[in-house]
Specification:
550 residues; alpha/beta; Rossmann fold; Domain 2, N(10)-formyltetrahydrofolate synthetase; Formyltetrahydrofolate synthetase, domain 3; 35% helix; 20% strand
């Protein structure tokens, strides 16, 4: 059966029953039908164990990080542990593009999967509207006389849409002022817009409004910053986001509670679910299982250096997901031959896995367990090669089969993680310190986490750093936008590349979210569709049965 057929074959529990497992009261739910709801409950001071699920650099064969996260949570449930998932919301961009949905797979899914993958409770639409409202207010202010003397050539805040649409990377906005002179603008995908990051990092409504008002929309003609609160935009934007601020409660196929809220795209955003959802989960359950997008060089680094720093979180353990197929691809195997046994290719691909282990244990100083996401084509020789290589460096190794077995396929993994959490021997640290220069922070990530030889700053990036220093914003953390497929900024350099440089072509200022975005290589904040997007193979019949949504 396909994922959607499996999901539709399971009888779901009413959302009130799922809420009761976390002691959430019925009056703390805003229901969206029978099987999903917003949760208005506030986090308490209780803090359960926090487990991060991350992965090696993904490949075209997939990794299954979300699938493992869900199956692992169901395993905790089977072990009668108090557990809650804290996941990121899907974006329509990859759903209709190349990646597909983000609700897991097989017998390890969050449901209702069609709703979650599509409009869900409207959070991303609210973010898009709030973002574009501010853009409208900026252009209207200029049109109505420009009392703030905004420099139309230095507007830093851009429009967004929750779709992959490369044609919108550069647009011309007409009637920007009363003289009718157009100006250049561009769209980012909603997942990478500043309002998404703000909603993800805000801790309550007051903090949300403060962050929205703190958005630097551009510079005036004297070179001084202009903020959204000077346009009195923050309250109207917050009104559009008032419901989106609350996490969404759904369930797994195994009946485990899942809070899904904000934060996709760790390649071009910071790629974590909201602080509100994570803190709420930690206050309601003894174990919170969360994930960060793409490989550990992207999502996990940003989870540690941005989210954990902002929210003062300390993870108790990390799960690092790998697959035999992905290791083969990192070892140079053609994707048409992934089912053939090839231990030589796995050996060539293993340095990618080992680098991520090194980063987690030596840079961030956290305990890690490696889990191999099982495929039927995996051979004993291939599995034992990975097991022996990982075991030699003293890291636990566990096979999981959550796709086929759900929570039952991750019982060994759950028990291993519980033991790691009980030891609680981590001395969590960051990859860089905030008081370093912008250049040094970027270099620390590139050289230490990616393994680069050096960082090359393009002229635009140098100019941005000069401006950042002038504006005294150099103490902000850094989010690097780069390809997810490689430790480098070149997606063709697989496994663990050597002697490469990272090129930073520009740096964007995000004062509302409170970080800088460094654009590496040719990474774009608006993705495009591939030659055969998933959208063209989807169907819906008169009974509203959807096919082709994975």
């Amino acid at each position: 059966m396909t994922d959607i057929e499996i999901a539709n074959s399971i009888k779901l529990q009413p959302i009130e029953n799922i809420a009761k497992k976390l002691n959430i009261l019925s009056q703390e739910l805003i229901k969206y039908g029978e099987y999903k709801a917003k949760v208005t409950a506030k986090p308490s001071t209780k803090a359960g164990k926090l487990i991060l699920v991350t992965a090696i650099n993904p490949t075209s064969a997939g990794i299954g990080k979300t699938t493992v996260s869900i199956g692992l949570a169901d395993a905790f449930t089977l072990l009668n542990k108090s557990v809650c998932l804290a996941l990121r919301e899907p974006s329509l961009g990859p759903v209709f593009g190349i990646k597909g949905g983000a609700t897991g797979g097989g017998y390890s899914q969050v449901v209702p999967m069609e709703d979650i993958n599509l409009h869900f409770t409207g959070d991303l639409h609210a973010i898009t509207s709030a973002n574009n409202l501010l853009c409208s207010l900026i252009d209207n202010h200029i049109f109505q006389g420009n009392q703030l003397n905004i420099d139309e050539n230095n507007i830093l805040f851009h429009r967004c849409v929750d779709l992959n649409d490369r044609a919108l990377r550069e647009v011309t906005v007409g009637q920007g002022n009363k003289n009718g002179i157009p100006r250049k603008d561009g769209f980012t995908i909603t997942a990478a817009c500043e309002v998404m990051a703000i909603l993800t990092l805000a801790i309550d409504l007051d903090d949300l409004k403060m962050r929205l008002g703190s958005i630097m929309i551009g510079l005036d003609k004297a070179g001084n910053p202009v903020y959204a609160n000077q346009l009195k935009a923050e309250n109207a934007m917050a009104i559009l986001l008032k419901d989106a601020l609350h996490p969404n409660l759904v369930q797994t196929l195994g009946g485990t509670p899942a809070l899904i809220h904000c934060g996709p795209f760790a390649n071009i955003a910071h790629g974590c679910n909201s602080i509100i959802a994570t803190r709420l989960s930690m206050s309601l359950a003894d174990y919170t299982i969360t994930e960060a997008g793409f490989g550990a060089d992207l999502g996990a680094e940003k989870f540690f250096d941005v989210k954990c720093r902002t929210a003062k979180l300390k993870p108790n353990a990390v799960v690092l997901v790998a697959t035999i197929k992905a290791l083969k691809l990192h070892g140079g195997v053609d994707k048409t031959k992934l089912d053939d046994e090839n231990t030589a290719a796995i050996s060539l691909g293993m340095p990618n896995l080992l680098k991520h282990i090194e980063n987690i244990t030596q840079i961030f100083k956290l305990p890690v367990v490696v889990t191999l996401n099982k495929y039927s084509s995996d051979t004993n020789n291939e599995i034992e090669l990975v097991r022996n290589t990982v075991s030699k460096i003293g890291v636990p190794f566990v096979i999981n089969d959550v796709w086929a077995l759900g929570g039952k396929g991750a019982l060994d993994l759950a028990n291993t993680i519980i033991k790691l959490c009980d030891k609680d021997n981590s001395s969590f640290s960051f990859a860089y310190e905030l008081n370093q220069t912008v250049e040094q922070k970027i270099k620390d990530i590139a050289l230490k986490v990616y393994g680069a030889k050096d960082v090359i700053f393009a002229e635009a990036a140098k100019n941005a750093i000069t401006n950042i220093n002038k504006l005294k914003l150099n103490s902000l953390p850094v989010v690097i936008a780069k390809t997810q497929y490689s430790l480098s900024d070149d997606q063709k350099l697989l496994s663990r590349p050597k002697d490469f440089n990272i090129t930073i072509r520009d740096i964007e200022i995000r004062t509302g979210s409170g970080f800088l975005v460094a654009l590496a290589g040719n990474m774009m904040l608006m993705p495009g569709l591939n030659s055969e997007p998933a959208a063209i193979n989807m169907t819906i019949d008169n009974n509203n049965i959807i096919k082709g949504l994975f």
